[in-house]
Amino acid sequence: MPRVFVQGAPAAYFPRHAPEAARGTVRRVTETGEEVLHKPCRDVTEFGPDLAALIDDMFRTMYVAEGAGLAASQVGVDLRLFVYDCPDDDGVRHVGHIVNPVLETSPPGRPLVEDTEGCLSVPGATMSVPRPEHAVVHGQDRDGNPLRIEGTGYFARCLHHETDHTRGFVYLDRLSKRDRKEALRQMTTHRDAVLARRAHRSASEPAAT
Question: Which of the chain's ends, N or C, has fewer CB atoms near its CB within 10 Å?
Fold first, then answer.
């Protein structure tokens, strides 16, 4: 079985970091409470060098922040787009980006799976969040070509989480009032250490290997 899928297609080999990261620049990650994270993003209507450069920056920023996915709103850009480099529950790696993502609705009655989830925009906090164990997302690639991405397990969780960002939701919105308060407490406690680690990685880690 292939161990890496790039843009939904099996790949015989893929480097440790997506090549886009080598061209990218690290951007600041927005944090919960900032307006761009809490409203639906705009559709991408222009495909070209500016979009490609944004995707490069997002990959670079995601790796520096040690994330499995990153939406454009998390770097302050009000567009429906995310990148990912995420394993599924079988250890298969999935790498890519998707523009204007639309998540297929899960069949009624399908159980949700509780698992730990974090967010680069809620630094230092992790909580258990119920999500479907399967996801199918339709959208486009950076050139505007149709794209379909399917995932299970942890990768499905990533697809649901990042698509939520494009709709103006963070995972805190899926928590009870009590759990949300606990997540924000964790963020208050650990935020400075997380941001210091990101700053160190940004200054010291090669762009891509």
Answer: N
